[in-house]
Fold this protein.
Amino acid sequence: MNSCTRPIALTAGLLGFLGVALGAFGAHALKDILAARGSTDIWHTAVLYQLVHSVALLALCGWREMPVGLQKWTARCWAGGVVLFSGSLYWLALGGPKFLGPVTPLGGIGLLAGWVLVVAIASKGGRP
């Protein structure tokens, strides 16, 4: 594994592990709290986006035709996007301060920016 993909793979593994753990925690330990707050769907959305982007990060490690610099930026966009998007949703689902609401779209912009980089490389002939 080259020096670029090792940190990306580690990030993917950590985010994936935490996504599964938080999904289970929400389904069991927090089930009643989330139901009472009406925020079960918010929690599910946070877990879904976190897990999808964990897998996408791992797939990014295998894209050898993607320039290393763009690979790193894509990974940064997705990892930061997950932290901001899913993190703010987890917090809001548990009754966190409402000022976190605007953080969620910022995370979404990070996720979208990573996908724009994927499209840009693919449109120039780069194949996964």
User: Anything to note?
Assistant: The first helix runs from residue 5 to 27. The mean pLDDT is 93. The helical segments are 5-27, 31-37, 40-61, 68-93, 103-123. The two ends are 16 Å apart (CA to CA).
